[in-house]
Amino acid sequence: MRIAQISTNTIPVPPKDYGGTQRDVHYLTEELVKRGHEVFLFAKKGSTSKATQTFEYESNDPKEQLDFIIKNLPPDIDIIHDHYGIVAKANPPIPTICQSHSKGIKSRVQIPVYVSKFILRKYGKSRGYAVYNGIRMDDYTFRTDKQNYMLFLGRLIKEKGVHLAIKVAKKTGKRLIIAGTLNDKKYYNAKIKPHLGKKIRYVGTVGGERKRELLANASCVLFTSTWNEPFGLVLVESMASGTPVLGFRKGGVAEVLRGMPQLLCRTTSGMAAKVKNRKRLPTARKLRRYARTRYSDIIMTDSFLKLYRKVLDNNLYKIKKNTLWNRRKAKLQPKPNGEDN
Questions:
Q1: pTM of the predicted model, to two decimals?
Q2: Which stretches in the chain have pLDDT values below 70?
Q3: Which residues are registered as beta bridge partners of 40?
Q4: Are 158 and 143 in a shared domain?
Q5: Structurally, how many domains does the chain consist of?
Q6: 57 — phi, psi (to 5°)?
Q7: What contacts 24+ positions apart, CB below 8 Å, involve 331-334?
Q8: Per-residue model confidence as pLDDT tens digits over 43-66
Q9: Based on the domain organization, do 259 and 314 belong to the same domain?
Q10: Do 206 and 123 fall into the same domain?
């Protein structure tokens, strides 16, 4: 199969630190190539891939990026997987799925895909499909012996509930390491900084080996989001590392942890109680096995290939004539006899 993967122009593929969408694109591209498919990747400059060919955007303007894709898209593409949205909205004459890595797809596209059934129902109005994120298990360090600290990993914004992780740390008297990008300085100065000290530390943005070590060595990870998380990749990363991750029943969290209900909490008091009774939580090996059998890059690729074939075999994508794609393509065609546009 000849497949075009359309990434965003925000972060290269794969990302060095933060970048869930680009990591999904990377894992999917590498696994598809491994299985013998031809993959053509469109991504930000600096991207590296085993794709058949990688095209790096030459502009930061979405309109110019769409033109770039139209001009460079190889012939005989079977299906386009758009993680960005600009291609699906243009309605190309090629079967195209549009994947939302957050809570919704603003424009109406023919084949929307969401990262959880919760998001599909709530924001997609049950129109489209749900395919879970997947990670490469070998990219995460598995460890059964843990150190005596809890970990919060994510952006430092109110919606991620860092202040609630601090509250759990104070209720338990245990050490807490906070790692992630500082996106809201006002929130940080008011709700986080006053509590930093010997037991509660902020170590900044982490990635690579540092991130793997923090996840693998933590006694547990606190996933304290207060909003409806579309999926919650940290949940899977933690379990892949053999580390229990405690999360609130919000958004897609309950769905991701549906086979591990003992990890779900309703309050900070309930979360603190589970931290204190860690022996009742799943073992490292059970957590690793759970992540591998449900949320690996292999499972994710299986699901997308199944969807690709469903779209192609059942003619789910309707080819339209007067579309933005066709209009832009016509405008980009050279005029006969050297005429000006």
A1: 0.91
A2: 17-19, 336-341
A3: 4, 53
A4: yes
A5: 2
A6: -55, 140
A7: 332/67, 332/70, 332/71
A8: 999 999 999 999 999 999 999 999
A9: no
A10: no
